[in-house]
Amino acid sequence: MRSASSDMRGYTMIEIKNLNYQYEDGTVALENVNLTINKGEKIAIMGPNGSGKSTLFLCLNGVYKPTKGSIHVNGEPIMYNRNGLKKLRQIIGIVFQNPDNQLFSADVFQEISFGPMNLGLEKEVVRERVESVLDSLHIEHLKKRPTHFLSGGQKKQVAIADIVAMKPEVILFDEPTAALDSYHSQLVNGLVDELCESGITVIQATHDSDYAMEWADQVIVIQDGRVIAKDNPQKVFQNVELRERAYIEEPNVLKMFNCLCRTHMIENINDGKCPRSIEDLVKLIELL
Length: 288
Ligand code: ADP
What we know:
Blueprint: E1 12-22, E2 28-38, E3 42-46, H1 53-60, E4 68-73, E5 76-77, H2 82-91, E6 92-95, H3 108-118, H4 123-136, H5 152-164, E7 170-174, H6 182-197, E8 201-205, H7 209-215, E9 218-223, E10 226-231, H8 233-238, H9 240-245, H10 252-262, H11 278-286
Parallel strand pairs: 3-8, 3-9, 6-7, 7-8
Antiparallel strand pairs: 1-2, 1-4, 4-5, 9-10
Helix pairs in contact: 3-4, 3-5
Adenosine-5'-diphosphate binds next to helix 1.
């Protein structure tokens, strides 16, 4: 698989065609999923529990092989042999929802070194890479700490560092701020933004419609293993029927914007544009 640099934003990074995945017990978790994801895009995946988000991530990471259909990464089909999967995991990394499923080394330095060591890099190169990741994710202070004594938020930061140290082109985040307090949620969201700015394609499963409204370029909605929408956040969240069908909450900014439109305090409800953050809404109101 060829590698794509950050200046190639916009070209097709992942192409999923007619993807089906059925578990051994017969549960059909994904059905006829077709998606194209471009380099550098910020994608939010939403849908109720059990809709197939984690299964999709595990298919993208090569843990599960599609029962039917295919996944192309950088124009080439995923190869399910040892070499193919090793290459795939250098391109696509996954940060699991529960860091305890991901962290297993004695201390943080060893933990973050594990992936690059497995790539067969020189010890000195690994050390430099780990130092650089610790620095860029602002967690140098955790370097010598035993992983099992870290707090939930710190574990999440180290789990992200694990993946960043592999220098992937795409990172999949399964509900990255679930179970985090607001300080650590903001910290993790900030890290995600920095990764996006560096050109990494980020796909996040989230239930947080306020966050998805503000952050995502595209929102994909999955229900019962099927993709029922893929569009920009304004279009997805303005679709009441879709939101109700997939149990997605209306973002607060949209609630307020729609209320202001209904009461004619703001005109142009039909121009399709609505603010994506409270800050943008405040600016709009200040212009009235
Ligand atoms: P989500 O991440 O959106 O909560 P999942 O991908 O975990 O959804 O699950 C999709 C469907 O697959 C659900 O019906 C779930 O019960 C089922 N499922 C998940 N893992 C397994 C498994 N190991 N064996 C059988 N069914 C599974």
